Fold this sequence. Notes:
With 409 residues, this protein is mainly α. It has a single domain (3-179, 194-403), classed as Growth Hormone, Chain: A, CATH 1.20.1250. Helix content is 79%, strand content 1%. The protein has helices at 3-25, 31-37, 42-70, 73-91, 96-124, 130-159, 162-182, 197-208, 211-241, 246-270, 276-299, 305-331, 338-361, 369-389; strands spanning 397-399, 406-408. It has a two-stranded antiparallel sheet. Helix 9 runs antiparallel to helix 12 (305-331) and helix 9 (211-241) packs parallel to helix 13. The protein is globular and about 55 Å long. This is Multidrug transporter.
Amino acid sequence: MTKKKHFFLILLLGSLTALGPFSIDMYLPGFPAIAKDLNTSIARVSLSLSGFFIGISLGQLLYGPLLDRFGRKKPLFIGLVIYILASLGCAYTKSIDALILLRCIQALGSCAAAVASIAMVRDLFPVHENAKVFALLWLVVGVSPMIAPTIGGYVTSTYGWHAVFLVLMLLGLLNLIASVAGLPGTYKPDTTISLKPKPIIMGFIAVLKEPQFYTYAFTGAVAFGGLFAYISGSPLLFMKIFAVSEKTYGWIFAFLSIGLIGASQVNTLMLRKYSSEQLIFGALTCQAITGVVFLIGSINGWFGLTEIIILLFIFLSCLGFASPNASALTLAPFTKNAGSASALMGAIQMGLGTLASVAVSLFDAHSSVPMVSIMASTSILALAILYFGRKNIKHKVELDKDSAMVSFH
């Protein structure tokens, strides 16, 4: 594979992967405007975010077997069409209940792009390169939380929140065109895979029984729950409690994203010296300590806006180290059923993220305590899962940093 082709492929896969995060982040500055226009509360508007997470969780379980059975392209194209139509519906909705439903449908479309792009990483690149490729995807994905809320803030303040969903519709259309024109064939459809419920469920169970899968999948998913709590709680925290403007919120969100994405790129350099497992353990330890300090300070009212931004920056930076390595080690044991494995990994991640998001939505609070409590809890639990779970891995497929070989312990 030439460097030019390699770069284009990473860019395209990153663009597909970023569609979901962009859909999550871009409309966040519009929460107050949506609440006012639809005559509801910001906490209830945040349920549309939870609806999106639910759609992604369910959709990934659907698309995993479809991607293995029919190849990567057809399910991807269908998903993008669903996303485009749902985005159009969101732009013209008149009720919060309709918005929640349409956001769920929109997520069902966007998750096809996420599952397909992750599976194609496993299709196209050697196992020992997966962590680096995932880190590069994080760089592309990272552009979305850095610019999406900022763009969303300007679009909302200038044209209204409805226009945000028209922009998302356009992004879906551009991804569809780029995929049709430039996506290579990466996987030969496996006609032996049944789409009947029982074989699909048994396939997922087989994947879930792999100790390396469930250890790193749940470690990464629980840790990621802290990010979902932050995303769901940040509009209320910054725009209601600290009364920052829509544009300022967008810039704060963009700054905090630098920590998440910057760490994922430093992670690529760190892989030259440390193993993925070492980096995950170190990152989660730091994240747990940060979460506990953040929680104690929030309960006692020690922190102002500046201190909260600093602590969130550290917390998200730790996640930037943990997530790419957790993803790579989760999928490392799989080849033939990588689509189902990536779908199940994503479903677990989004499912637990939804729980964290809904938990934050239940509190229309006047402090950061509910959000921070969930962030601290997910960090501690993720560290515990990693510590105890890796003891059950007897034959670990590991990323060998010194050669192109996959080592088994």
